[in-house]
Write a sequence for this structure.
C-alpha cells in the first residue's frame, strides 16, 4: 500500500456538520441504548478503545462506562491525544492487548474512532490470536488523508513539529518513508479468518470523506451522525452492540468445547 493520500480529492466534507455533536449527546441521554437496551452481557470480554486523531481516552469515556455496566472489561489506550507515530502506537497497543487477553482469558474486541480505527484494524490483522473483532467508527481506511482541509492542516502541523524533534508526535517520514511502511502495508490486507470487521460510516460526516470508510474487507454499516458524534451517537452505539454480539457468537464457535468429565464409579 502506498503512503496515505492516494485517493484524496481536493474537496472536503462540510465541516459545519460537526455542530450536531451537542444534539447527538442529548439524544443519547434520552435513548434506551444508554441503559443497555440491545447490548448483550459481555461476560468479561476485554474491549480496547482507541480514540481518534488529536483526541484522548476521555472522548470514548461514555462508551467505556456503557460497556462496563454490561459486563465487558473496557480498557483505555493510554492516550492524551492520538498524535504519535502509527507504527510505534500499534506496537505499544499490541503489548497492551497481550496483557488484557492474558488477564481475562478471552480474545478482545477493539473499537477505534477515526484514526483509532485504522490502528485497530492493523492490530486485528497482526494478532488474530488476541482479537476477535474490530469496530471502526468513521475511519478512513482506504485513504487516511481523505479529510477536511482544515484537519489536514492540523495533521501537517503535527508532522512538522514531530520532524523538528518534539517528542510524542508523528513525523512527516511516518507518511511516506520506511518508518511506518509495515503499518500501511498491514492496513491494506484483509483481516484473517475469525477476526470480524465492522466499518461504521456516515454520509453526513463533516470531517472524513465517507467513501474512504468503505473497506471492501469488512461489513459496512451506514448511520446518520457527525464524525465526532460517533462517540455518542445512539445509532453508532447500536452498531457497536450488534457487532459485539456477532463477534461473540463467532468466537464461541471457534473455542473448543471442554470435555465432560466421566462420572465416577459408584
Amino acid at each position: 500500500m502506498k503512503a496515505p493520500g492516494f485517493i484524496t480529492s481536493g474537496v472536503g466534507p462540510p465541516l459545519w456538520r460537526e455542530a450536531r455533536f451537542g444534539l447527538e449527546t442529548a439524544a443519547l441521554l434520552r435513548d434506551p441504548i444508554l441503559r443497555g437496551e440491545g447490548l448483550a452481557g459481555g461476560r468479561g470480554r476485554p474491549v480496547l478503545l482507541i480514540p481518534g486523531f488529536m483526541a484522548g481516552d476521555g472522548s470514548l469515556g461514555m462508551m467505556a462506562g456503557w460497556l462496563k455496566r454490561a459486563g465487558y472489561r473496557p480498557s483505555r489506550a493510554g492516550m492524551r491525544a492520538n498524535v504519535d507515530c502509527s507504527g510505534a502506537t500499534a506496537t505499544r497497543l499490541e503489548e497492551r492487548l497481550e496483557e488484557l487477553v492474558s488477564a481475562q482469558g478471552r480474545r478482545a474486541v477493539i473499537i477505534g474512532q477515526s484514526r483509532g480505527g485504522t490502528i485497530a484494524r492493523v492490530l486485528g490483522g497482526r494478532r488474530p490470536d488476541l482479537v476477535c473483532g474490530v469496530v471502526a467508527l468513521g475511519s478512513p481506511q482506504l485513504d487516511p488523508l481523505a479529510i477536511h482541509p482544515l484537519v489536514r492542516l492540523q495533521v501537517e502541523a503535527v508532522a512538522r513539529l514531530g520532524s523538528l524533534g518534539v517528542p510524542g508526535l508523528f513525523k512527516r517520514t511516518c507518511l511516506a518513508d520506511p518508518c511506518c511502511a509495515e503499518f500501511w502495508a498491514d492496513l491494506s490486507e484483509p483481516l484473517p479468518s475469525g477476526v470480524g470487521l465492522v466499518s461504521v460510516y456516515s454520509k453526513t460526516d463533516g470531517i472524513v470523506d465517507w467513501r474512504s470508510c468503505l473497506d471492501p474487507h469488512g461489513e459496512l454499516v451506514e448511520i446518520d451522525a457527525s464524525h465526532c458524534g460517533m462517540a455518542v451517537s445512539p445509532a453508532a452505539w447500536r452498531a457497536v452492540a450488534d457487532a459485539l454480539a456477532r463477534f461473540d457468537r463467532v468466537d464461541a464457535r471457534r473455542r473448543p468445547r471442554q470435555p465432560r468429565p466421566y462420572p465416577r464409579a459408584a
